Amino acid sequence: MKCFKNYKGIFPMLVLVAMFAIVSCVEDEEAENNKAQLSWDLSSVPEGDLSANSGSINLDVNWAFTQWQIRVEEVLEGEDFIQEFTPRVAGSNTIGNTTTRVTIRYRQNSSYTKNVVRISLQSTDGSGVKLTRVISQVGQEFIPLRVNFNPDVTFQNISGFGGGNMMWGTDFLSAREIQLAYGTGEGELGLSIYRVRLSPVRSDWPAVVNTVKEAKKHGAVILASPWSPPASMKSNNNLVGGYLLQDNYDAYAQYLNDFVQFMAGEGADVDIVSMQNEPDIQVSYESCDWTIPQILDFVKNHAHKIQGAKFTASESFNFNQAYTDQLLNDPEALANLDLVSGHIYGSGLAPYPLAEQKGKEVWMTEYLMNQNSGADINNWNRDEAVIWEESMGMLQTIHTSMVSNWSAYIWWYIRRFYSFLGEGEQGTTREQTLRRGDAFAQFAKHIRPGFTRISASLNEPREIDVTGYKGDEKVVLVLINKEEDGIPAIELELSDNFNTAKATTTSLNHRQSVVEVALDGKIATLKLPARSITTIVLE
């Protein structure tokens, strides 16, 4: 009995232990059963590309005791085309096994490029569960565009593309800068016309000799433009404003001739001389006012005294054709006029049928675009995307000049932060080309003086400007893609005269970069980057 008595106190303890064990087991089982769970059923999500059209797909999310969200984690290619997830956030820490159907709606892909995104399903309560899946959407079906060109249909002769020297001071383009601007090697710009100022002070003339001689080494055509006659010849005895006294017309013609002869004597021949830069605008810097009758008088009765260079009359601020119409309609004035010239500030960029009828080339001799930084240099936005959009505007004016049957296009300063070569301001570096220069080179380097514009067009209307040229046993095609998307395929057929097709492009992401051209028999195919200019050379 004594032993039994000793065991008697153990029974309650055993009961308590058993009860504790049972409770622990239940709690462990509950903890295991309440563990966060998250998975998805992707059987309804295509392995391949979704349609380019808008639509929706469903997937089932299986979850328990967790909160979760589904989202686009990363765009791998193209754009985010997922419009919405419904629901995007769901789940609960207190609810067991549940299935939630998620609808994924996606947008139409209006581009030709594929869209690829990575989506993720992830717990948001710290459980660490995360699942991912890549979803792709095909681009729009693209039928290659065709460039049609006909070398037998011709338009104007091309005299070249150029830019201006620094007009005031003596910090003119160096030999290295001339090489970059007028050379035709890799990374160079291939300009062919050089505009310089014809100073109203004779003692200034020697300063421009060396830079002109350097340009002439590269075959550049030299255009000399005066901003004012000598002050002593003018009504106000001042280099700013006023007008040339009629009694001094002959002396001024001789002054222009003296400059031409001086430069020739220095081995720096001037090819074309102008009588006046922008006679039709009043400004606060070196200038001279001319009326239309005054211009007619000078050209008709005095311009013949200028020897050894071609002559162009007034370079109107906005190519006001009235300033040259009277010259073209007067036989004596016409005999002294070699070409018609003007600028395109504000307006004036249009065909000039009268000049064509009279057999005179039309030259655009000055233009610039600089985000209004001439008013305040701090207006210049250094963002390459902003600069490129303005450069696309420059390219549009060149294209329009060409289809207007103009023979030359000359930019303002060659060396300036908003131009072709850097000069040290606004983050630019001296003796380095700028992207805007590379864009200009797509015309200048490949369309050489003496080329002729030919018929060229696309087989369907698109926001792509096309011009064609021939010369040196080549055909050159220039395509400006103004569309926001790249063009997957442009085709052209090579005639029997041509066996090769080479191309370069400039855009926000390219600088005279080589473009791959696939040649299948006589069919050449290439891509055009978005917002770009591409030049194709057939040989």
From TrEMBL:
Residues 1-23 form the signal peptide. This is O-glycosyl hydrolase. PANTHER family: GLUCOSYLCERAMIDASE (PTHR11069), GLUCURONOXYLANASE XYNC (PTHR11069:SF38). InterPro entries: GH, Glyco_hydro_30, Glyco_hydro_b. The lineage of its organism: Bacteria, Pseudomonadati, Bacteroidota, Cytophagia, Cytophagales. Belongs to the glycosyl hydrolase 30 family. Keywords: Hydrolase, Signal.
